[in-house]
């Protein structure tokens, strides 16, 4: 899951030189001859940054000393060529004719579900994306892979990260920093509002009777979903929330979650122990 400022360390890589991209581009394993030697960050050259501009309305920057760009029909791969434990790269592309989930399903079809972590989160500001990470199994080469897919102007902007991790933490971090720089530097000429959740945003209410101080009273619980994936849950107290495709995130670390479903003007929320409550959309002029 990308953070709201589009900054996230990537620890990903190729399992071996025999593994190739699905597209016909060159793959370099960096300077593996020196992988077992002592890595000294002071020996690294000062960065020389270059710009890459895509015909699909996005651009980024990279250090020419340690990154080589391999262009494809849909984007580009930024391959790390410096001293590292194995092949490491970041791929950025735009996919047409599919949804973010369809792209992820296609890219991760052969992944082991037991090694896959799926999440959602902010992408390049207030936009939303889906993320899948593949973790190495016990005894395997420490390789980490990630795909991040976001709706982008009617298409899908796809981030692919792949990194081999070795036994030299300083070297691994230097590689990760350079790959992360490519991601952090991504900018878009025009990122239109996403439409995949256009019918979600709104204020929903649930009414019920309860006895308070010996008197029957009408109680109103409210959930508000803002277009920027923030919101508020107003029951006895107000709770600031975030929301994704099917879950409400109730705390800053997003570990306290409630599943939900939107069907027409109804917001169905699981409030614990399998108890679902239906909230109904309220027009703004009808709010108290």
Which descriptors apply to this entry?
single chain; about 290 residues; mainly beta; Jelly Rolls; Lipocalin; 2 domains; 8-stranded antiparallel β-barrel; 7-stranded antiparallel sheet
Describe the structure.
A hairpin with a 5-residue loop joins strand 17 and strand 18. The chain has helices at 100-107, 169-184, and strands at residues 49-53, 58-63, 67-71, 75-80, 89-95, 116-123, 127-134, 143-152, 155-164, 187-188, 202-212, 215-225, 230-234, 238-243, 247-249, 257-263, 266-270, 276-282. It folds into 2 domains: 32-188, Jelly Rolls (Sandwich), CATH 2.60.120.1690; 202-286, Lipocalin, CATH 2.40.128. It is elongated. With 288 residues, it is mainly β. The protein is built from 2 helices and 18 strands. 31% of the residues are buried. Residues 1-29 have low confidence and may be disordered. Helix content is 8%, strand content 42%. The strands form 3 sheets. Strands 11-12-13-14-15-16-17-18 form an 8-stranded antiparallel barrel. The protein has a 7-stranded antiparallel sheet with strand order 3-4-5-9-8-7-6, with helices on both faces.
Number of domain units:
2
Label the structural class: mainly beta
Spatial order of the strands forming the largest sheet: 11-12-13-14-15-16-17-18
**Portion in strands:** 35-45%
**End-to-end distance:** 36 Å
The overall pLDDT average reads 86
Helical content stands at under 10%
Main β sheet profile: 8 strands, antiparallel, barrel
Weakly predicted, low-confidence segments: 1-29
Shape field: elongated
Radius of gyration: 23 Å
H and E string: EEEEEHEEEEHEEEEEEEEE
CATH architecture classification of the largest domain: Sandwich
Number of helices: 2
What is the CATH topology descriptor of the largest domain? Jelly Rolls
* Total beta strand runs: 18
CATH class of the largest domain: Mainly Beta
